[in-house]
Amino acid sequence: MLHPVGPLPAAVYWRRRLLVLTLLLAVLGGGGWLLVSLVTGSGTSAAAGGSPTTPEPDAGPPALDRVVPSLAGVQTPTPAPSTTPPAPQTPAPPAQEAGAACGDGSIALEVRTPGEAPSGAAVSLELVVTNTAAVPCTRALDAQLQEMVLVDGAGARLWGSNDCQPASSSDTRTLQPGEQVVFPLTWTGLTSEPACAAPRVPVAPGDYVVRARLDAKTSPDAPLRIR
Q: What segments bear the compositional bias annotation Low complexity (predicted)?
């Protein structure tokens, strides 16, 4: 191997050996470089593929104007106008002056009945006038200003105290606060019409009410049963 044998000079054989050795070294060197490149590239790719994605910085809690809408942008519904008419205002009665005439708002009327009575029998009734003001006042209590009537369930008037025996008097009194004046009246139990124009007959059994007035002031109804 070290002493080439052949017809050519020895230098030729040495050059051929050097060329082959050079080629061999080049091939080995290229293969080694390729191998190193492959190994290095695979590591880089693995590192690149395995590296975790860098998380984006936390933006923090959302801004308040993104959570709660601006008040300027909130549409407040307009309430629909009410269709209910306002309740009428009842004017307060004027204050009662001490010593002046008692207004209708300063007195109370009440009718007292026995509750029930036999048909055709006399019935005792009472008209009670009360001063409800806080001061004394005067009131005309004349007989011609007073009246009681009997009314049935249908609202028909069956008897009136002034129909057949109208009375007349002059009776003006000063009533103290809370003072009551009682006017008794006896009803015969018979029907009547104004001016006593019709025959009088006993009121039939049933449920009735007695209503009184003093001038323009009226009383609540008082029940009376005729049996």
A: 44-53
Q: How confident is the model at residue 61 (pLDDT cuts 50, 70, 90)?
A: low
The DSSP code for 187 is E
Neighbours of 175 (CB within 10 A): 21
Task: Report yes or no on 222 lying in a domain.
Answer: yes
* pLDDT in the model for residue 152: 96
Domain of 125: which CATH number? 2.60.40.2360
Q: How far is CA 31 from CA 22, 27, 39, 159, in A?
A: 14, 6, 12, 143
* Average predicted confidence (pLDDT) for the chain: 82
Does any domain span residue 186?
Answer: yes
Q: Please, which residues have CB within 8 angstroms of residue 170's CB and are 6 or more apart in sequence? A: 142
Count structural domains, the chain.
Answer: 2
Cα gap 132→111, rounded to integer Å: 16
Residue type, 118: P
Q: Which residues pair with 140 in a beta bridge?
A: 172
| Full residue range of the structural domain in which residue 11 is found | 1-40
Confidence of residue 29 (pLDDT cuts 50, 70, 90): confident
In a domain, 69, yes or no: no
Burial pattern 121-152, b for ≥16 Cβ within 10 A else e, equals eebebebebbbebeebbebebeeebbbbbbbe
Q: Within a domain: residue 11?
A: yes
